[in-house]
Design a protein that fits this description.
The complex is a heterodimer of chains A (about 500) and B (about 1050).
Chain A (H helix, E strand, L loop, with lengths): L1 E5 L3 H8 L9 E4 L8 E4 L1 H5 L8 H7 L4 E4 L2 H16 L5 E5 L2 E5 L5 H17 L5 E5 L2 H10 L3 E4 L11 E4 L1 H7 L9 H10 L4 H5 L3 H20 L15 E11 L2 H21 L2 E12 L5 E11 L2 H12 L8 E12 L15 H15 L6 E4 L8 E4 L13 H4 L4 E15 L2 E7 L3 E15 L8 E10 L4 E7 L2 E8 L1
Parallel strand pairs in A: 2-4, 7-8, 8-9
Antiparallel strand pairs in A: 1-6, 1-7, 2-3, 5-6, 10-13, 11-12, 11-13, 14-15, 16-17, 16-21, 17-18, 18-19, 19-20, 20-21
Chain B lengths: L5 E4 L12 H10 L4 E7 L5 H11 L2 E9 L5 E6 L2 H16 L10 H6 L4 E4 L6 H8 L4 H13 L4 E5 L7 H15 L2 E4 L10 H13 L21 H7 L4 H13 L22 H16 L6 H17 L2 H16 L5 E3 L6 H5 L7 H4 L17 E6 L2 H14 L4 E9 L2 H12 L3 H10 L8 H10 L9 H11 L3 E13 L10 E3 L6 E6 H6 L4 E7 H15 L14 H8 L12 H10 L4 H10 L2 H5 L3 H9 L12 H4 L9 H12 L3 H12 L5 H17 L4 H13 L7 H20 L1 H10 L8 H10 L3 E3 L17 E3 L10 H13 L5 H7 L4 H9 L10 H8 L26 H11 L8 H5 L9 H4 L7 E12 L8 E7 L2 E7 L1 H6 L1 H6 L2 E11 L2 E11 L11 E2 L2
Parallel strand pairs in B: 1-2, 2-3, 5-6, 6-7, 9-14, 10-13, 15-16, 17-22, 19-21
Antiparallel strand pairs in B: 3-4, 4-5, 8-9, 10-11, 11-14, 12-13, 17-18, 17-20, 18-19, 20-21
Helix pairs in contact in B: 1-2, 5-6, 11-12, 17-18, 17-20, 19-20, 22-33, 22-34, 23-33, 25-33, 29-30, 30-31, 31-32, 33-34, 34-35, 38-39
The chains are: A alpha+beta (about 500), B alpha/beta (about 1050).
């Protein structure tokens, strides 16, 4: 006998659990895609207001103005999963996580009535943790899965009749269950579904009543696999869930420390060991987390992303040290933990991607220091906006590698140097025949000697906000000196002076 | 000439590059005081004809040019100096277009060198060869290219092009160009690289850039223009701009002076006809006309006919059009010899010569038609004969015969300019502006309008689609939408217009491959061709002619001798059928509007049918002519005339102008217009949609002329209203007669040979106003039994196995391959199939096809029911299996038999029709208090009724001021309902999206016309009941 525990709307439940005052509200979980977040899961209250899958946030709010928007939380999901896992594990030792939102428990070896009873207690227990879980119990894992997905609470599929079951448990025969289960629930391929629809086969029961040979003869291997699945053919060995790899070490000092040296010494030791273990596991570190517990006050946490994941203890140690450069605490340190996040080690072909950086790690260190001073949002590489808007630039993230520069194109080198005024100087201009003849501003004034222009540019005309439109003149004053005169809309300004 | 000439402009016919119509460019030139301009469209002369016509009206000179897209991706603008140069380029472009997939042809330098005589070339702008060479950065690349161009064109015919658009940095390039010109011995010329007529065009130009590059505005980056300087500039502006290089401006005038060529001297000649006896074309034409006249008039030519014949032949002779008539006659003969129905229509039906040549079916003398409408000595333009042919293979055969006779470069289809309109325009503009796909989709599906009267109206409709009117881009959307409407999008081919030429057509206009294989298309549409005196013949396909030909051929096979010419024109049962409005499936008079008019019209003779065909058109409807005419028919005391001088012209239509000729005659009588002025009016009216200005100009002349003659203001208003309304298209009387003949004949066939007629309709789908499902229901209501598709009995086509019975053909089964079905029929002819296994063994249908056949019941001859057949066909069948012939014990079918709804679903999914009862029959018991359509006949006017049915038609005619007409079909017939605009707006989604409706309202049952004036509309819960496609919003 098998039990399947299924948590519907897993991500939504997990995220809601970690926030207060959401029970009974219309809530929608959206993807965290930057450009277009769409609804993934939502509560019944939101569904009643017309919220559906795949709506943009705007659309969802348009249908349900009071809708609360929340995002996926991996940590919350991990916590939720851990709760489910440990609860399932308490029933039987053979637990397998099949998908992120369900697990299968092999109940063989347990007394059936007891196991059924415990399953319903598990459901109740998880409900007290604000987790709604459904369970299906059946002779085979596939039937149990079907029962769990369609059930309200605990559905027991069995030909045998059990007495005195928990009120949560609904007992039905296999035949009845399958006869009412829509064929779409077993997710046949589109082609098979089309044929079954033409045959008038609308329920799993009807499909299961066909002879296997007939199914195989007509629907081929795909049909046979489907048939075997709904009939629950064959038993399955449930593997044991592996414990996740954790690279973490912690230390509690006997005496509180007041300077870095002893800390750094131990950090270096821990780094050596963890890197050794990591290498054994063919993993590389992606993030360093140092948690400093203080004798008094809140612990200090330092996180350092590793731009070039590796398991080189020297490099990682230096990176971590640069985080601590200049740090001081009000209280001595009495404990710390060091944890590394990791990923699989991959072989690299060196030389395939050239970089002009001599030392990428030092580059990363420098960036880290700068980010610490100015903030990460002010750190980046400026690039001109392509549409030619005056002074239009944006910051893009610093690349991991810097391309080799093959030099500027000839055209780009022909430029005059200009000292820019920021902000531009307001100017008064007199015109004659549409041409400036005299300009006056706080810093520059005089009669116009020579001029070139006007140079006319405009853009973003399709929207009032962002629309720009200017004329530029290069002016040489009679008394000497050159300026760039700009008319932006109706106002005249001097943008800069030429050297 | 003084000042400046713009020598490099692109019109909107440089698709997705230029942003202004040619006439707007001409108008801008005139406004800016320029005396000439060269329109150089990309890879052709697409806009040249229109620019030529507009320039003539504006009093400016149209210089012909084009941009050649070269093999190295550069673009060279060339100006046509002589006719030789034009012919060279036209042939070069033809060769380029025909040698590559559509749109991918590039000119190579060797070919250009061979055909450079008669051309003046400019070095181009940013896309020009010099600039491209410069950007490559190789040393001497620019010099090498200059040398190459000099070798091709010659020093005297190559000019270095200078453009200034007020962009910082362009002076560097300009200085290089001037230096280059100086060292190479070339002259410079200034142009502005015009892409639009005025500053507002820049927005459309940017839109087109985004559409061409498939990006939104936000992601366009540097693709868009930096400013809006590429508009038509005055001579003063250009002089100021090039004040440092005045010779560049002067050279524009020098170049213009050197240009000899205009489109007036294209050198077009209509092909000569080789007479069999060597006599002149005039003599031979007269001979065959007289022969035909004896046949047509049965040897008894009246004096009037003789006079008319003499007159027409002499006009034809003087205008030197004999060859044209002989060629068309020869083509019609070819149709006759190949048993292809052919009937001339249009103004040709006004000619007794055409009647005697058996090109047209109507005696114009007897019908009192005006020959001058067809040919007029005053206006020297070509005659225009349209030939209606059965659509499909037969018409294609005739078209290919024309190609065979004149060669691939001697004949071509005329173009059809596809323009931005309605929903598609809104969608494309919206996409570029970055509006969400969902909103644009909603806008497209919910709003079917083709245009909006104001930007505010469009903004309102956008708001209803989820785009807030305060959205920062809503205004831009509305503005751009209106600017882009009517601009050319791409070139298609006209369905039937063909032009032919003595010698090579590709020396007159460049030809391109059409999307249909085996066809070429010219770069000009029929109006352009007409303006330039290029003669065309329209070979139009009519589905109904194919239906009629099939019907008559079938009857002939059964020994019934019938052809179009022998159908009696006074058959009372046929008129009775029309009076009952029992006209579903027949030609022209089956639409909802026609069915609503027929009971009032009560046609009694052939001319009534002609009027019926002519009166339900936007022209008479817009001109408010329909009801006055019908009222006068019912009560002759109401007959009145705008003016006593119009009695002769209008007495046949009871004082109401219905036909185009009448409008022209009214203008001639009331304003004393000459024949050619009336013809100008006709042309302006017929091209209103593409040239509103032309129409307005002619109307002003008409008003002025009537005022001069002292016509009273109210009569002037009436005349102007009548004339303006014909801008929305009314029929020429001759056209209405030709169509009336087909309408009458098709009704006759339906009346007397219904089975064969319906079968022909089904075999020639898609066509007509109604779906095959509705046609079949109509057939059943006429007592015809419809038998389903059966592999043992059905042919490929639908057929009539016995009187009163139709057998659906395999052609109806969706996704069934024709060659597989024909193979099956062939096998069956050898020996009938004795089992499904035998059937599978001997046919080549794949699993999907077998499934489809089983699903629609076509295999019920082998198995007891559809499910059993579906069960059986799904077994793996291996043709190589040695044991496959052995009779094995059949497995019992475990599947349930299909119920009625499932059979309906399978029928509609598989063949689009059902031979069973109408879906509404299964609803009936759930719809108490709902009238059947057949009950409405006996329900008094004003009664409150409720009707229900499947929606088969939703119409919102442009002339109906927002009213919507809905046709519902139930098991007893078709009911029609009228929905007021406000109700429609409130119930828009229900009306447009639901397949089954219940409509409640007051019944209008007057003079045989029955409508429900809707005040409540509900959807019917359908639960799996299928519906056939409906005809919406045309």
């Amino acid at each position: 006998m098998y039990a399947v525990f299924y948590m519907p709307d897993f991500s939504l439940q997990a995220a809601m659990r970690s926030q207060s005052a959401l029970n009974g509200a219309a809530v929608a979980l959206v993807s965290d895609h930057e450009s277009k977040a769409v609804t993934l899961q939502f509560t019944k209250e939101a569904a009643n207001e017309g919220v559906g899958i795949g709506l943009s946030v705007g659309q969802a709010l348009a249908r349900c103005p009071g809708l609360k928007i929340i995002y996926r939380s991996q940590q919350a999901e991990e916590h939720a999963w851990k709760a489910l896992h440990s609860a399932a594990y308490s029933i039987a030792p053979r637990v397998e996580r099949q998908f992120e939102d369900l697990c299968v428990v092999d109940l063989r070896g347990r007394k059936e009535t007891e196991a059924i009873q415990e399953c319903s207690e598990v459901i109740s227990g998880l409900k007290s943790l604000s987790l709604v879980v459904r369970a299906g119990i059946a002779e085979t894992d596939s039937l149990a899965l079907l029962a769990a997905k369609r059930a309200e609470k605990v559905t027991l599929l069995s030909e045998a009749r059990y007495e005195k079951l928990h009120p949560n448990v609904v007992q039905i025969t296999n035949k009845f269950f399958l006869d009412t289960l829509p064929i779409e629930s077993v997710e046949p391929g589109n082609h098979i579904l089309e044929i079954l629809t033409q045959w008038g086969i609308r329920t799993v029961g009807k499909f299961a009543s066909l002879k296997r040979s007939s199914v195989g003869n007509r629907l081929g291997m795909e049909g046979l696999v489907l048939w075997d699945r709904v009939k629950g053919r064959g038993t399955r060995v449930i593997g044991v869930l592996d414990l996740p790899l954790v690279f973490e070490m912690s230390w509690e000092f006997e005496r509180e420390i007041e300077n870095l040296e002893p800390l750094l010494f131990l950090v270096r030791r821990f780094m050596e060991q963890l890197c050794f273990e990591m290498k054994r596991a063919h993993k590389v570190a992606t993030l360093l987390i140092l948690d400093l517990g203080l004798a008094y006050g809140e612990p200090l946490l330092f996180e350092q992303k590793i731009p070039d994941p590796n398991s080189n203890h020297e490099a990682l140690f230096r990176l971590l040290v640069s985080c601590l450069d200049g740090v001081s605490t009000d209280s001595p340190v009495d404990r710390f933990s060091l944890r590394m996040d990791y990923e699989d080690h991959q072989e690299r072909q060196y030389g395939l991607f050239d970089s002009s950086l001599k030392n990428p790690h030092r580059f990363s260190q420098t960036l880290t220091k700068l980010a610490g001073i100015v903030g990460t949002e002010r750190l980046g590489r400026p690039v001109m906006r392509p549409e030619g808007r005056p002074d239009g630039f944006e910051l893009e993230a610093m690349p991991q590698t810097v391309e080799v520069d093959d030099g500027m194109a000839l055209e780009e080198c022909i430029m005059k140097s200009m000292k820019r005024y920021r902000p531009m100087l307001e100017a008064k201009v007199e015109l004659q025949g549409g041409v400036p003849v005299w300009i006056q501003s706080d810093e520059v004034s005089g009669f116009v000697g020579k001029y070139s222009g006007p140079w006319v540019r405009s853009g973003h005309w399709w929207e009032k906000e962002g629309l720009w439109n200017r004329s530029e003149w290069d002016i040489r004053l009679r008394k000497g000196g050159g300026v760039r005169l700009v008319k932006d809309g109706k106002a005249w300004c001097i943008e800069g002076s030429y050297g | 000439m003084s000042g400046y000439v713009e020598l490099h402009a692109r019109s909107a016919f440089s698709f997705l590059r230029g942003a202004s119509q040619p006439d707007c460019l001409a108008s801008a030139c005139s406004n800016k005081g320029l005396e000439a301009m060269a329109v150089c469209d990309r890879n052709g002369f697409y806009g040249s004809a229109r620019f030529h016509a507009s320039a003539r009206e504006e009093g400016i000179r149209a210089i012909v040019g084009c941009e050649l897209e070269m093999e190295d991706e550069s673009v060279i603008p060339v100006l046509i100096r002589t006719r030789q140069g034009y012919q060279n380029i036209s042939q070069l472009l033809t060769r380029t277009h025909l040698s590559a997939p559509k749109g991918e042809g590039r000119v190579n330098y060797e070919d250009l060198a061979e055909r450079a005589e008669g051309l003046i070339a400019l070095t181009g702008d940013d896309e020009g060869p010099l600039r491209k060479a410069w950007l490559k950065g190789r040393a001497n690349a620019v010099q090498d290219m200059t040398t190459r161009l000099k070798r091709i064109f010659g020093e005297r015919n190559l000019y270095v092009e200078l453009q200034r658009h007020r962009l910082r940095g362009e002076e560097v390039w300009l200085r290089s160009l001037k230096d280059l010109a100086s060292t190479s011995g070339l002259s410079v010329v200034a142009t502005n690289g015009v892409d639009y007529a005025n500053g507002e065009g820049r927005a459309v130009h940017d839109l087109f850039t985004c559409l061409r590059e498939k990006v939104t505005f936000d992601k366009s980056g540097s693709l868009l223009s930096s400013n809006g300087q590429r508009h038509v500039k005055s001579a003063d502006s250009m002089c100021r701009l090039f004040s440092d290089t005045p010779c560049a401006i002067d050279n524009s005038l020098r170049i213009a002076d050197r240009i000899e060529f205009t489109l007036e001297n294209l050198g077009y000649e209509f092909p000569a006809y080789e007479t069999p006896d060597g006599s002149s074309m005039d003599t031979y034409l007269k001979e065959i006309v007289l022969r035909g006249a004896r046949k047509r008039f049965r040897g008894k030519l009246s004096a009037q006919v003789k006079r008319q014949l003499e007159h027409e032949l002499s006009v034809i002779r003087r205008l030197e059009f004999s060859g044209y008539f002989l060629i068309v006659w020869d083509l019609v003969n070819y149709c006759r010899e190949n048993r292809i129905m052919a009937q001339g229509r249009g103004s040709a039906a006004n000619s007794v010569v055409c009647y005697c040549l058996e090109i047209t079916p109507v005696d114009p003398v007897g019908a009192g038609l005006l020959f001058e409408r067809f040919l007029n000595e005053e206006r020297r333009s070509w005659p225009d004969i349209d030939i209606d042919l059965p659509s499909g293979k037969r018409r294609e055969q005739v078209i290919q015969e024309v190609y065979r006779r004149y060669g691939r470069h001697g004949a071509a289809m005329t173009a059809n300019v596809i323009t931005y309109r309605g929903k598609s325009a809104a969608r494309e503009v919206g996409k570029v502006l970055g509006f969400p796909e969902e909103s644009l989709g909603r806008f497209s599906s919910v709003f079917g309008r083709s245009h909006y009267d104001s930007e505010e109206e469009l903004e309102e409709q956008l708001e209803k689609s989820g785009i807030d009117s305060k959205h920062p881009r809503a205004r831009a959307m509305a503005k751009l939408y209106n600017q882009v409407l009517g601009l050319p999008r791409h070139l298609g081919q006209h369905s039937g217009g063909m032009i032919i030429c003595q010698g090579k057509l590709d020396t007159v206009v460049p030809l391109e491959p059409a999307s249909m294989p085996g066809r070429t298309v010219s770069q000009w549409d029929k109006n352009d061709c007409e303006d330039l005196g290029i003669i065309k013949v329209d070979l139009l396909g009519l589905g109904m002619m194919a239906v009629m030909q099939d019907t008559m051929e079938e009857l002939n096979k059964k020994g019934i001798d019938i052809e179009l010419a022998t159908i009696p024109k006074d058959d009372e049962p046929t008129f009775e059928m029309m009076r009952r409005a029992d006209t579903v499936g027949v030609f022209q008079i089956e639409s909802r509007a026609q069915i609503a008019t027929l009971p009032r019209m009560q046609p009694k003779d052939f001319y009534d049918v002609v009027v019926e065909v002519g009166v339900i058109r936007p022209g008479p409807i817009q001109g408010k002519m329909v009801h006055p005419y019908l009222e006068r028919r019912e009560d002759p005391s109401k007959i009145a005339y705008i003016d006593p001088r119009l009695v002769d012209t209008l007495k046949r239509t009871l004082g109401v102008p219905i036909f185009q000729e009448q409008i022209l005659k009214v203008a001639m009588v009331m304003a004393n217009f000459t024949g050619s002025q009336a013809e100008e009016l006709r042309r302006a009216v017929s091209t209103f949609s593409s040239n509103e200005k032309r129409m307005n100009r002619v109307l002003s002349k008409l008003i002025l002329a009537m005022e001069k003659r002292g016509v009273s203001p109210d009569k002037i208003d009436q005349v102007i209203q009548a004339v303006s309304s014909f801008a929305h298209y009314g029929f020429p009387e001759s056209h209405a007669i030709s169509f009336g003949l087909l309408a009458y004949a098709s009704t006759y066939l339906k009346c007397h040979h219904g089975e064969e007629f319906y079968v022909a309709l089904l075999n020639n789908q898609p066509m007509g106003f109604y779906s095959p499902a509705t046609l079949l229901q109509d057939a059943k209501r006429h007592g015809i039994r419809v038998k389903p598709v059966c592999v043992e009995r059905s042919q490929w086509h639908c057929s009539v196995p016995e009187k009163g019975v139709i057998r659906l053909g395999l052609i109806m089964v969706k996704a069934l391959k024709g060659e597989n079905a024909r193979q099956m029929v062939g096998e069956r002819k050898k020996e009938m199939f004795y089992s499904l296994r035998d059937f599978r063994r001997r046919t080549v249908f794949d699993k999907d096809e077998l499934r489809q056949l089983a699903s629609v019941g076509a295999l019920n001859c082998f198995e007891h029911n559809r499910r059993q057949a579906l069960w059986a066909v799904e077994t793996m069948h291996d043709a190589q299996d040695l044991f496959s012939n052995a009779e094995e014990a059949e497995e019992l079918n475990p599947l349930e038999i299909m119920n009625h709804i499932e059979r309906l679903q399978a029928d509609y999914a598989g063949i689009g029709v059902t031979v069973g009862s109408h879906p509404m029959a299964s609803f009936r018991s759930h719809l108490p208090n709902v009238w059947k359509t057949s009950d409405l006949d006996h329900t008094p006017n004003g009664a409150r009724v409720k009707v229900a049915g499947q929606v088969i038609c939703r119409q919102r005619p442009g002339t109906a001021k927002g009213f919507v007409f809905i046709s519902l079909e139930d098991e007893t017939g078709i009911s029609n309902s009228i929905v007021l605009p406000k109700l429609f707006e409130r119930m828009r989604l229900v009306i447009t999206q639901e397949p089954y409706l219940i409509i409640s309202g007051k019944l209008q049952n007057q003079k045989g016309v029955i409508h429900v004036k809707a005040d409540k509309i509900e959807a019917i819960e359908v639960k799996g009941r299928p519906a056939s496609a409906s005809y919406d919003f045309h």
